[in-house]
Prior knowledge:
single chain; mainly alpha; 67% helix
Amino acid sequence: MTALNTPLPQPHRSPAREEFVAGLVAILPAMIAAAPIGLLYGALAAQKGLSPLEVFLTSTLVFAGSSQFVALELWTEPADWIGLGFAALLVNSRHLLLGASLSTKLGLFPRWVIPFAAFPMADENWAMAERRAATAPLTPAYYAGLSALFYCGWVLWTTLGSLVGAVVRDPATYGFDFVFTAMFIALLAGFWKGSRTGVVLAASGLVATLAKLTLPGAWYVLAGALAGIAAAALMFDPATDGEAA
C-alpha cells in the first residue's frame, strides 16, 4: 500500500531546454509572417536567373533580407560585385547599432559564444531579444531558440519561393509588398513607452523619407537610424533613464 502511495518521479526538465523552447514560441509569429516576403524574394531571384541552389546558398550565407532584395535590384549581367557588396554593407550598417544595443544584455553569454550570436541577428530576433531583456535576463538558450527558427524559416521560404517563382508575377497584387512593413509596425508597438518613443520614431521616419527622396542608393537606412539615435540622445535624462525611449 505504501508503494502505491509513493509519488511517481517527475521527469527532469532542463532550464536551457525550456528557455530554447520559449525562444521558439516567441519568434514563431515573426517566422510565419516572414513567409510571404521570403517566397517573394525567392520568386524574384528565380526571375533574375538564380537557381534554387544559389538562392539557398545566398540565404544561408548572407541571411539579410533587406540587403538580399537590394542586391536583386542592382543585379546586372555580369554582376558588379563591388557595387553589390557596398550596397549590402550600407543596408546592413544598422546592425552596428543593433549589436551595440544588444551587447549590454549579453551578461550570461560566454565570451566565445558572442561572435557566433552576431551572425544570425536580424531585426526580428533582435527585437524579441530586447523585449525579453526588458523583463528577464536574456539567456543563450532563449536567444538560440529565437535565432534558429527564424534563420531556418528564412532559408526555407526563400528556397521554396525560387522553386515556384513563376507563379508570383505581381506581388503587390496580393499585398506581399506590405508584409514586412506590417510586421515591423507590430514589433515597434512592443517598444512603445510614451511620447518619447513617438518623437524618436517620427524623427527617424522623417529623415529616412527625405533621404530616400533626395539620395541615391540605400543611404536612407543609415540616415534614419542616425536621426533616431540623435533624437533619443537629445531627450536623454540620467534622472529618468529607465523611462527613456
